[in-house]
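User: Hey, quick favor. My workstation is busy. Could you predict this chain's structure for me?
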Amino acid sequence: MAETKREDWTSRFGAIMSMAGMAVGLGNVWRFPYLVGQYGGGAFVFAYLISLIVCVIPLCLVEASLGKGMQAGELDTWTKITHSSKVGKTIGSIFSLGYSTMNFYFMFVLAGSIYFMYTFATNKKATMAPEKIYQDMNDNHLTALVVITILVTLLTFFVLWKGIVSGIESISKVMMPAIVVIFAIIIIFCAILTPNIVDGYNFYLEPDWSVLKHLSVWKAAAGQAFFSIGVGPGCVLVYGSHIKRNEDVTMSMITVCMVDTTIALLAGFAIIPTCVALGIDPQSGSGLIFIVLPKALSQIPFGNVFGILAMLAIFFAGITSAIAQAEVAITSFSDGLKMNRNKVTFSLCLLTLVFAVICAVNTSQFDFWNNFSGNYVFIVSAGIGAIGFNYVYGTKKIRTEFMNPGSDIQIGGWFDKWVQFVACPIALIITADSLYPFLP
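Assistant: No problem, here it is.
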């Protein structure tokens, strides 16, 4: 079986945009803004940034550097960590396939963003309330949504078929800057057109420092930071494996984390203040973008135009994440089993297509895969990954052999102790609490 030549990112900008596309997802748009409003505005942002600096960036650097050093996916990496081909390939296969199951339900969510572009373009909310449109979308299994789900799945895997450079890097260079521009446009015009917008900005960003004494705020901030960047399950490892051995990984990953945070903040600025200023209570999850946002935009001039733009930005954020969720398995199996990349891509496309359609027509299946991949596969693999990378393979070895060579910033031995005695333990506590809650 012919093995496809392995590709690397062609430039630092391309690498950063591609890895930002991996990190930036729906959580930036429908969870982060809500959490900022719920947990003390600017105080939550402060807690989030501290969590990012203390825990997430160090672990992100370790994982990306290990990928850079291994120049391979999960199967080969876990084989080297465990010193056993059988054990390593088993762990790598389970983690890779498990992570790719996120796309089983994710494709329908992406289809929803396209469907809501249509509802804004046709001003459907003028004759049907946003809640009813959303309920109709979920409960009646519209044929149009099934077709859109199929098309979104095919588009995702067409990008993956094109490869690392012509596919993922090329599309990320367009979509990531586009998200920033779109949200900036929405922020500017909503600031001009929305009455009492200052009240909305005060709600969103005025710090309530008293909330920082509550552990729940820090837990929410850390959990959001870990999930947003995607440390642990293998996407940072796989995307890091396409960085050339002689190129910088430290500044690139720090920049990725900052881009991810910036887009989350911009999404919040674009959505939450407008809702609050108009007296609409924001909520978390899909309701924020599919119910609350249409309600808010219906009350300002050119709301349908801004709605189309917002859904386009949400689609861009979602599809780049969907690409990353599939790329983990594609890189890992094509590397670890010496398989042709296009054959792996085609096989995974068929598997995803079948389950994506099932999730589009069966709500219980949608809920099952959402819970299974998001609440179990991601969390368990992230915890095991933190242990395997830092305690089994070794933080010091990763830093000296893979992280520092080629990087503009040379990190000293203090980093090893920090990761192993501060960042990793906190990550494992958050992971355990996510499975069996015990923190208040």
